[in-house]
Amino acid sequence: MLGRATALRRGLQVAAGRTRGPDSGRGSAQPAGLDPALLGLLVCPLSKRPLRYEESSNELINEELGIAYPVVDGIPNMIPQAARKIEAEPPHPTGEESTQS
Amino acid sequence: MAASIGAAPCRTLFRRSCGKRLSAAWGLLGGARGLVAQGETHLGFQTVPEAEKEQRVYQVFESVAKKYDIMNDSMSFGIHRLWKDILLHQMNPYPGTQLLDVAGGTGDIAFRFINYVRSQREYRLRQKLKSHQNLSWQEISKSYQEEALKPLGGSQVVICDINKEMVKVGKQKAQLLGYTEGLSWVVGNAEELPFDDDKFDIYTIAFGIRNVTHIDQALQEAYRVLQPGGRFLCLEFSQVNNPLISRLYDLYSFQVIPVLGEIIAGDWKSYQYLVESIRQFPAQEEFKAMIEDAGFLKVEYRNLTAGIVAIHSGFKL
């Protein structure tokens, strides 16, 4: 059944004739990238300002407020409580609770 | 009814259901949907601090996520599929529509939307080809190629849910069913949507808004992210108008559903919360007034299945 679903999916993609960036469904070997179509739509839920996508740490960063929202398995987590406060030093992988405005 | 379920836990179930029946009766008589203290809100028939509700609801859905679809089918005998189909028919989206499905969890509305738009596009293509009888084969193959390149005609649906587990289940379902394009998943709070103003053509929230702590905030956010001319659609459990059906429905809700929840999902409390939260949700007219307060115009509702479920619709004009 999984084989048929994969074949179906591949068939659909071929028919579509365009690739959609990193295919986050194809097994766990793929990096969990962000869907480019979403990037244009997303803003910070707190300040409604645009976000910057950081490839290296896989996060969406709001420079003004200094917070970063994680992207897990290609799904951005835009809950303010999940955001990490960015200090001046380079980001480290552990997440922390951000302070609410 | 409890006796028919099983041997061993039967007596405890019966005793538990008696207690629940009492609280249900109190709820129906005393108007448990009455006043709560400042800073408190309803969690089913309990009263909890507002800050706690979101966390508790999150836990409920986290616990039921994997069995959510099976439970929906069992509880409603599959009728929930009809309700969602009717919602889509009322929505009647055309190719090119941008849909935001909030509390979309396992993706039922989103998948139906994609199917609908796809079949609409095929239908229009067929009509177009039929009306142009003297097309050359090159033109025909070109129009089929166009259709293959953009099977959705530019439609897109963004599914937003506050619960990571539900989104995970939904994404797996999408991959299994072969929905690859036109679909985006976001974890976000309906009260604080991570989208800019005037972005979407249609906003739907199916069986989600009663779980939101501040419904008025969610409605205001809905108004904000919709484009002018955009449509708000809410499919939600509501109050039954017929007294006989209401009695049967209450019996079914409080006696059968939590038991089903225990058997199928191993979670009595979550489904107890479910049926209680349905009773706490405002009735059709009151909810309509709340939607109007948020700024929507031409707000209407239509009852399905004698009012067990209602579809509220409003426009941002």
Question: Could you describe the 3D structure shown?
Answer:
- The complex is a heterodimer of chains A (about 100) and B (about 325).
- Chain A is built from two helices and five strands.
- Chain A has about 100 residues and is of the alpha+beta class.
- In chain A, strands 1, 2, 3, 4 and 5 form a five-stranded antiparallel sheet that branches.
- With about 325 residues, chain B is of the alpha/beta class.
- Chain B has one domain: Rossmann fold (3-Layer(aba) Sandwich).
- The longest helix of chain B has 24 residues.
- The termini of chain B are far apart.
- Classes of the chains: A alpha+beta (about 100), B alpha/beta (about 325).
- Chains A and B meet through α1 and β4 of A and α7 and β5 of B.
Question: What's the arrangement of secondary structure elements?
Answer:
The complex is a heterodimer of chains A (101) and B (317).
Chain A: H1 2-16, H2 36-39, E1 52-54, E2 59-62, E3 67-72, E4 75-76, E5 84-85
Chain B: H1 10-30, E1 40-43, E2 46-49, H2 50-64, H3 68-76, H4 79-91, E3 98-102, H5 108-131, H6 137-149, E4 156-161, H7 164-177, E5 183-187, E6 200-206, H8 215-225, E7 226-237, H9 243-265, H10 268-280, H11 284-293, E8 297-304, E9 309-315
Parallel strand pairs in B: 3-4, 3-6, 4-5, 6-7
Antiparallel strand pairs in B: 1-2, 7-9, 8-9
Helix pairs in contact in B: 1-9, 3-9, 5-6, 9-10
